[in-house]
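Can you give me the bound-state structure? Components:
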Amino acid sequence: MNKQKTNRRSFLYETGKLAGGGWLAINTPILLAAGHAAEEQRKAGGNWVNMTPGEALAFAAVVDQIIPPDDMPGASDAGVVYFIDNVLGGFMAAAGGTLKQGLADLDTAAITAFPGSGGFANLEFDQQTELLQPIDETPFFSTMIYLTHCGMFALPSWGGNKDRAGWTLLGFDNRHAWQPPFGYYDALAGAGKDF
Amino acid sequence: MSQEKKSVAFDTRKEVDFVIIGSGASGGILAKELSTAGFDVVVLEQGPYRTAGDFSHDEMKVNILHEMTNHPGWSDPQTFRHDASEKATVRNSGPPPALYARGVGGSSVHFTANYWRLHPVDFKERSMLGSIKGTGFADWPISYEELEPYYSRVDWEIGVSGAPGPFDPPRSRPYPVPPLPLKSSGALLEKGAKELGLHPQAAPMAILSQPHNNRPSCMHCGFCMGYGCEANAKSSTLATMIPLAEATGRCEIRPLSTVYRIETDDAGRVTEVAYIDAQGAQQAQKAKAVIVAANGGETPRLLLMSDSARFPNGLANHSGLVGKYLMANAHSRTEAVFDQPLNEYKSVQVTRIIHDFYENDPARGFYGGGGIDARPFVQGAPVMFSLNGLPPDAPRWGKAHKDLLRHNYTRRMSVLGSCTSLAQESNNITLDPELKDTAGRPAMRITYSDHADDLAMAGFLQDRAVEILQAAGANTVWREPVTRTDVLAHLLGTCRMGSDPATSVVDPFHRSHDVPNLFICDGSSLVTSGRGQPTMTIQALAFRASEHIAGFARRGEI
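Here's the bound-state model for the whole set.
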């Protein structure tokens, strides 16, 4: 029998709700329909597929609270919102309602706490932090933490990690071949030096 | 491999010599050995036929979406509970409780490739120490000496890199290739261990440090644990045995073929194996003999599903022990951050191990033995590190969180303790009474609680790990809590080998005590768990079983 490729039929199951830890496990082989399309869309500054422009701004504010910009890019500059837009059309589709309700609740909280602000995305950075602190154990925010890290550090073809910003932050380099020495301590050991 | 694949397609209605269920660590060896011995073999594999070019560094696919471990065609949930008083449930997060890879090559494709032999003591510890109350602690029907030639065959034919260590059992041949190059985690483990008077040694790994058997050496890309090797340097049966089996023209690998029943006739002999093929159609392959090599979880599940009027408790289950005595090896993990970069994301997981605590020691006050290794663990990959690599008291978001991510990633490592699991009847694989998979098969139900001694041993190894890391000069050390496991990456003991049909499922040659043309050879055959790295032993058993099964077939004794 000749080699058979993976069966790429997608089975979409509504398996369970978001766990408190923010992990949504879907025990089915949902493969990203077009991973590279997300990267292309990001490069082109294209339209949002699974969120409104307003939601995209609010997502950007939340992901920047999780991994803020400093001398290195924050999560939104690294394209994490494109990653979220991408996976909301894929394996995280079931989480879309929770996330969008969470954003709406944040807007309500923002307008209540800071009348006239018009919404969460318009607040100052520290004001946003203040509103998130009391809710950072909720399914909404746990899911945001989960997705922000996935988007920041996964292969750029998933839509985030723009220009490998996440990997540069960590000091990771995705090569297919390395040679020893690999790190500081094995280099010293290999040279017969103590450390 | 350079072997040319000779396609062969057997008629399902015509008896082949052997159907092998599962193409993994043991099934791949059985397929190669029996086909090269001249027998016609059909291998039924539920997963897809991926090859090196299909593998990637994609953490989303592998770590988040579990591409390697999902059923490729449908939802196949597992239920889990710690003991029979609980209702087993499906988790909606993380990896499945019985964690194994589906695909040609099975879990040998995604494994970490630690290749420890058992020691002589592992085979006869019950006689040496006496019984342990409430357990099925037993001797093996075979000795280390009897298995040793087959361990050496694994070294050479599968391909193991290593060097002898001070606690190693006797070996008849040297390793075929030297150890893989030292990583910083290994250098630090070695330093800390030596400060404490311990005896660290090079890790035996089924990953090639030099070209061997027409396969290339490791490129140190760093994506081993959970991933398929893109270079064929990891010695999976996909890279080693399957090509040799297919080159015979007598072995047909049928991927995407999920077995749901083994059929028997009125004489109590196996006649055919029923499965769902890649197109979703029901098929049945007739065979003179069947070998179940589906792993210590799926093998008992299938036998229990194959019940009949003649075998009301499941096939080959006269003893009542099919599915029982599940052993997973207990583990502990200790984390450390050092001042300088280790860059653990490069190269293989493990380069140094410690076997000073392999033997049981009554002075500890509990039964057990184990080993220690240094490695990046799954947090070597960026997404997994960012989600689960920081100390428990670290902020989960914000500026301070980002600073820790930036500082720790290249400077961190894990030390793992792996140890014995005692065989307990209450730890087992059964069929879930309610839940079925999409194909209508009863879901696998796992009931498992580590024995108190297993957890004590894992904790003991963690205490040593903390000392070693501190002696190595770690800046920060923290313990991952040692708790009852609910993810079992090793599935052992569920069709145990023995001479007495009342207390074992297969005989010392892996033949079912109850069904003369049914053999079972995989992790389920193990009588004791060893100290934490079972694949080497599963494969030595598979080489040995192949030799005996081929002999039985030639002599008309099946």
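A couple of observations. Chain A touches chain B through 68 residues (CB under 8 Å). Helices of chain A lie at 35-44, 53-66, 80-87, 96-113, 125-132, 139-153, 165-170, 184-190.
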